[in-house]
């Protein structure tokens, strides 16, 4: 069999021909456009050639100008080199001329000094003579190395350089001896004006240290005189009986004030004639006498106040407290007075040292004005030089004060003070705990205010010493005491526990109380016996713990304010020490707050949990599989929830006036959590139908409404599991429960197994569907 195939391409060919015609038309139009563009731009090559010609011409001209400029610069460079060479030669010549003129002036000054010093000495014009000697000492050595030609010419007139040199050297020697003698005579005669006169001459003779040493010895005798007068008055008992408790501190203060006055009076004189850097030399002499006089005062203080003996006794007691427990302890009041005087002595010494630092650093108006004036004209160099000089003076003064007997003695007293202050704090706290009492309707006891008053007093007293290390040590001791002794005393009542409640427990406690009454005779009151005492101790301790948190925060704020006010001169290291010490109070507050929360939980366990369990048990007595008629009756008169809320309200209200506000709020939170947990338990023991789920939802809304009214909106979070359980018990079908669980935006608190468990409480849902539920 044959197969004939007929294919018709006519339509396809016609289409291709049509497209070809269109393309040819487009090609023709494109060629016409290109031709038009070329005709339009026919003159462009000619214009471009003309522009290139013009640029070439200009480049040729520029090349020629550049060549001429290079030649001119070369000539200028040669000329400048020649001129600079001549300028250098002229500068050298000028320098030599200036040096020559200076030498001539020096030679003239040498002759004038030679003639003038002799006349001044004859006229006893020692200031003028010193000026001539000062000019002579300031001359360059090159003056005495001039050529022989000048020497030969000078011999003709009888004035040789050697002769002038010998005359001036002898005059210098004689004037030094004479000034020293005159100054000593003025000191002996008590002639202050003459002393100052000759004191001003020493620096002109380059005898700065000699003058300062002799003047310092004179001032030291003045210090010794008034210090001895004050010492004798102190030994005699002082003039004011009201200040006997700070007698030695007052005497030390008078010594420091006297030295400060001397420094303040004579500092302008020293800085004007000797220079500011020389003031430190005079202070070094004065500090030596200050050490002697201060040590005398401290030694008699230690002896008469029995300071070291008491420190040794406290140290022995601290090391072996058990062994010496029965020994008579130091009187706290007497020790309080002693510690106050020690810190006052250290404060006065610190103020004295700060005064010296300010004086040596040049913190006065005159120097500030002078430094500012110089800095305006030479800001960089002068400012750096002033800063370096100031730092060097401060460093040397700090070394002097730290190595002085006064500094070492104060550190010794302060070291013993810290130990004694710790003992005072510890003993005062123990006494406050022993005398603890709760007054009237107060929710806290007396030791709370007493102990924090003691801690703040001790830390503030250490603050008056102006020693950062001392303040940090006492603050650390205070925190340690609050963390140990105070916390143990408060926690003792918590550890004893809150008396258990319930019929059996109350019956046992009543029987025990009755037995005690029969044993000792008498009548038994309704609130007698150890139970009520234990209950009161627990609640007081719990309130004390919570109130202590606020006291700690108040203490930190108060101390921070005190530190900012009194410790103004701190470096970064000292600031870090104080911040770390204060930070311990935050950690302590957290610990007390945590202990209070645990106490509230223990209170709920002992006093609320049993009653709460008994209050929710009637839930099982009410049917949760009601028919329509029973459901209507339950809506009209709920036999469980009304009574449960009333019982819960009565239970919570019984603690409202027994707890501080923060503890009461914690109690509400814990009770709400426990209520939800207990109710969840009984719900798990019941069975429900659809109407029973609706009834549970109504009861839960009533309960959460009440809890929210007493505990705030945060209570709803405590009932989250119970709310989700109620939602599951209100579904129509198992599939609805699955959709609700998977599509809900709420974070589920129930696991899939728990969801199946609570769905199984619905008697009207198929058990197989629940088992096969995929979550």
Automatic annotation (TrEMBL):
Record keywords, A-Z: Golgi apparatus, Membrane, Protein transport, Transport
Any single Pfam family the record assigns to this protein: COG4_N
Gene Ontology terms: cellular component: Golgi membrane; Golgi transport complex
Biological process according to GO: Golgi organization; protein transport; retrograde vesicle-mediated transport, Golgi to endoplasmic reticulum
Location within or outside the cell: Golgi apparatus membrane
COG4 transport protein middle alpha-helical bundle domain ranges (all copies): 168-495
Entries under InterPro entries matching the protein: COG4 (IPR048682), COG4_C (IPR048684), COG4_M (IPR013167), COG4_N (IPR048680)
Protein name: Conserved oligomeric Golgi complex subunit 4
Lineage, broadest ranks: Eukaryota, Metazoa, Ecdysozoa, Nematoda, Chromadorea
């Amino acid at each position: 069999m044959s197969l004939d195939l007929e294919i018709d391409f006519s339509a396809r060919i016609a289409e291709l021909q049509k497209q070809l015609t269109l393309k040819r038309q487009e090609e023709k139009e494109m060629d016409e456009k290109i031709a038009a563009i070329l005709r339009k731009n026919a003159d462009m090559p000619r214009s471009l050639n003309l522009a290139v010609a013009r640029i070439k011409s200009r480049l040729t001209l520029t090349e020629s100008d550049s060549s001429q400029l290079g030649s001119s610069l070369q000539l200028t460079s040669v000329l400048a080199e020649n001129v600079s060479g001549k300028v250098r030669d002229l500068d050298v010549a000028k320098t030599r001329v200036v040096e020559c003129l200076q030498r001539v002036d020096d030679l003239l000054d040498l002759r004038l000094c030679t003639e003038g010093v002799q006349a001044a000495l004859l006229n006893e014009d020692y200031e003028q003579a010193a000026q001539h000697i000062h000019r002579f000492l300031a001359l360059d050595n090159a003056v005495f190395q001039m050529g022989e030609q000048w020497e030969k010419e000078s011999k003709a007139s009888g004035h040789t350089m050697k002769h002038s040199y010998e005359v001036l050297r002898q005059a210098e020697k004689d004037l030094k001896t004479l000034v020293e003698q005159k100054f000593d005579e003025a000191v002996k005669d008590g002639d202050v004006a003459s002393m100052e006169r000759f004191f001003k001459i020493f620096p002109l003779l380059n005898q700065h240290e000699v003058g300062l040493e002799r003047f310092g010895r004179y001032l030291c005798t003045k210090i010794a005189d008034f210090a001895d007068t004050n010492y004798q008055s102190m030994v005699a008992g002082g003039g004011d009986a009201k200040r006997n408790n700070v007698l030695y501190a007052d005497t030390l203060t008078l010594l420091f004030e006297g030295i400060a006055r001397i420094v303040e009076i004579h500092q302008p004189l020293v800085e004007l004639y000797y220079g500011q850097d020389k003031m430190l030399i005079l202070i070094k002499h004065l500090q030596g006498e200050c050490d002697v006089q201060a040590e005398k005062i401290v030694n008699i203080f230690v002896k008469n106040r029995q300071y070291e003996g008491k420190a040794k006794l406290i140290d022995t007691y601290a090391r072996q407290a058990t062994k010496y427990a029965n020994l008579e302890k130091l009187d706290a009041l007497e020790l309080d007075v002693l510690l106050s005087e020690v810190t006052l002595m250290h404060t006065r010494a610190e103020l004295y040292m700060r005064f010296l630092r300010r004086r040596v650093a040049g913190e006065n108006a005159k120097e500030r004005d002078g430094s500012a004036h110089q800095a305006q004209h030479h800001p960089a160099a002068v400012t750096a030089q002033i800063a370096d000089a100031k730092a060097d003076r401060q460093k040397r003064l700090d070394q002097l004060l730290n190595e002085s007997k006064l500094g070492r003695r104060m550190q010794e007293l302060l070291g013993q003070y810290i130990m004694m202050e710790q003992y005072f704090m510890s003993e005062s706290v123990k006494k406050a705990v022993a005398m603890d009492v709760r007054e009237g309707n107060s929710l806290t006891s007396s030791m709370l205010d007493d102990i924090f008053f003691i801690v703040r007093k001790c830390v503030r007293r250490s603050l008056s010493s102006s020693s950062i290390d001392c303040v940090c040590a006492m603050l650390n001791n205070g925190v340690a005491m609050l963390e140990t002794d105070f916390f143990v005393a408060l926690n003792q009542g918590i550890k004893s526990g809150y008396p258990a409640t319930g019929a059996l427990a109350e019956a046992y406690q009543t029987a025990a109380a009755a037995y005690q009454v029969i044993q000792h005779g008498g009548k038994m009151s309704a609130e007698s016996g150890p139970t009520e005492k234990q209950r009161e101790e627990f609640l007081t301790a719990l309130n004390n713990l919570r109130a202590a948190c606020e006291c700690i925060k108040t203490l930190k704020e108060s101390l921070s304010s005190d530190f900012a006010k009194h410790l103004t001169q701190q470096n970064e290291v000292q600031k870090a020490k104080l911040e770390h010490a204060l930070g311990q109070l935050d950690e302590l507050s957290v610990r007390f707050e945590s202990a209070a929360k645990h106490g509230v939980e223990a209170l709920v366990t002992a006093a609320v949990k049993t009653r709460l369990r008994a209050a929710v048990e009637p839930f099982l007595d009410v049917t949760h599989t009601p028919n329509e008629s029973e459901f209507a009756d339950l809506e009209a008169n709920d036999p469980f929830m009304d009574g449960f809320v009333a019982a819960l309200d009565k239970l919570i209200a019984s603690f409202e006036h027994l707890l501080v506000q923060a503890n009461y709020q914690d109690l509400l939170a814990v009770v709400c959590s426990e209520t939800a947990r207990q109710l969840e338990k009984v719900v798990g023991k019941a069975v429900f139908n659809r109407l029973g789920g609706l009834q549970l939802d109504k009861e839960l809304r009533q309960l959460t409404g009440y809890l929210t009214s007493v505990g705030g909106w945060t209570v709803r979070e405590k009932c989250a599991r119970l709310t989700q359980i109620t939602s599951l018990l209100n579904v129509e079908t198992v599939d609805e429960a699955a959709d609700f669980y998977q599509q809900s935006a709420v974070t589920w608190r129930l696991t899939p197994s728990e969801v199946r468990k609570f769905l199984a409480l619905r008697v009207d849902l198929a058990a197989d569907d629940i088992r096969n539920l995929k979550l």
